[in-house]
Amino acid sequence: MRFAGRTAFVTGASSGIGRAVALELAREGANVAVAARRLELLEKLAHDIEGLGRKALPLRCDVTRAEEVQAAIASAVATFGALDVVVANAGFGVVGPVEELSLDDFRRQFDTNVFGVLHTVKPAIAALEKTQGRLALIGSVSGHVSVPATAAYSMSKFAVRALAEALYHELLPKGVAVTLISPGFTQSDFREVDNQGVHHPGKGDPYPKWIVMPTDVAARKIVRAVARRKREIILTGHGKIAVFLQRHLPWALSLFFRMSGTRGRREPT
Questions:
Q1: What separation in angstroms does the CA of 142 have from each of 3, 49, 98, 173, 246?
Q2: Residues with Cβ < 8 Å from 230, sequence gap 6 or more?
Q3: What does pLDDT average to over the chain?
Q4: Where are the domains of the chain?
Q5: Which overall architecture, per CATH, does domain 7-260 show?
Q6: 263: pLDDT strictly greater than 90
Q7: What does the DSSP assignment read for 38-69?
Q8: What is the tens place of the pLDDT at every residue in 129-162?
Q9: Which of 71, 84, 247, 255 yields a CA-CA distance of 20 to 30 A from 5?
């Protein structure tokens, strides 16, 4: 019960990693405010959280709209009295070769993955400073390694990594821990979302199951890292290998991409 009596706020909580993290925080004793665009899914999640004996607050908000996120955080603080953990998780992936993507595709990607994170972070800082709490930003292995057809997504996650590094130094003297979470392939509906942010259920995962980390395993690792105030955690073995090669043997990683003919994943339609 590492978060007994604490309060958490999680964006993008309607599915995938966000949902699993919210449930894991509840299992660890936290009351959880969950935010996303799909209110009906949030209400189901809130019911599950309450089934664990915790309090839940479902909040519909779009992270691309600063005023909606600010209002959601204010509601969480007003309901629970404080915020101890904030997880900026909401995001999606635009895929495709640069020459085929429009500038609007890049803007749409940054609106959610970068400015959506900023919209969450800025109103949360004051509340976290009061509790000397924890801030987790969901990045990606793609924030370390860029592969063909992922320029827009990788650019956004490189930006999140830069933000996390700056925030780590800025907030450490104030007692707030900043943890960057960099997942590799994890189980979610992430790869069923197209470049417009529209979900296409049942399109399946293009990667073999043995390489994809189950969502509940990822959530346990994330919550443990946040509890321990770790600076960064890279999820999945292949993710750790990719980041190591990019840092120390970038030529080897480049050679692998060329020899394997890696072209990146396709947009689900």
A1: 30, 31, 16, 29, 11
A2: 179
A3: 92
A4: 7-260
A5: 3-Layer(aba) Sandwich (3.40)
A6: no
A7: -HHHHHHHHHHHHHTT--EEEEE--TT-HHHH
A8: 999 999 999 999 999 999 889 999 999 999 999 9
A9: 71
